[in-house]
Amino acid sequence: MNTEQLQLVLNSALEALPTLLGATPITLGFALAAMLLGLPLGFAVALARLSGVRALRGVSSLFVSFMRGTPLLVQIFVIYYGLPSLGVTLNPVAGGIIALTLNAAAYLSETIRAAILSIPKGQREAATSLGLNPSQTMRLIILPQAARVALPSMSNTLIGLVKDTSLVSVITVVELLRSAQLVIARTFEPFGPYLAAALIYWGISSLLELVQRALERRFSRGS
């Protein structure tokens, strides 16, 4: 790449930057919405997988297996393009959030389940001997410790969601990647806008990693 070509790429990246930054809150909104909705759903699925009721274990295990065993892009297509054939029509925003939420919930459920199982059984027995019922034991003894164990994986899930939001561009959601594509369609210069989009994704991920490390240090001091 000569100097003139490099200058062209830099100029196109700088020209695309305002548009891409304007779309960044949409990307963050999708990721945060999927995380906030996926956490309680993932927790419910984790409890179902740990349940003594065989039907609950079977249904929840099937859900996790399907969501983790199929591409997120296919899940988006099934929800947005497939459900209308069953009479359920969703707008692109709702379809994207639902797909991301269900996918995140499957991965979060495994993180939460593993964290709960990592707590020694002796602590449950000690809680029972103190007169705590199963609900109190879970809320007061198990979950506070499990949260420390699950934090790194949950943070990684959020970082992954930020990047996965790029897939909702295929259903016309104008998020970060789709904005870059629209700029390219206008300027016919792909390298700069895509590079600028990549740098924004990288910046967001790096910032979230810093927050993750800060939270881990705080939890470790409190343990």
UniProtKB/TrEMBL annotation:
Pfam families: BPD_transp_1. SUPFAM superfamilies: MetI-like. The chain crosses the membrane at residues 20-47, 59-83, 89-108. It is found in: Cell membrane. Its main location: membrane. Keywords: Amino-acid transport, Cell membrane, Membrane, Transmembrane, Transmembrane helix, Transport. The keyword Chloroplast does not apply. The keyword Cell membrane applies. It comes from the Bacteria. It is a multi-pass membrane protein. Residues 24-212 form the ABC transmembrane type-1 domain. Belongs to the binding-protein-dependent transport system permease family. PANTHER family: L-CYSTINE TRANSPORT SYSTEM PERMEASE PROTEIN TCYL, MEMBRANE COMPONENT OF AMINO ACID ABC TRANSPORTER. NCBIfam families: HEQRo_perm_3TM. This is Amino acid ABC transporter permease. It comes from Deinococcus navajonensis.
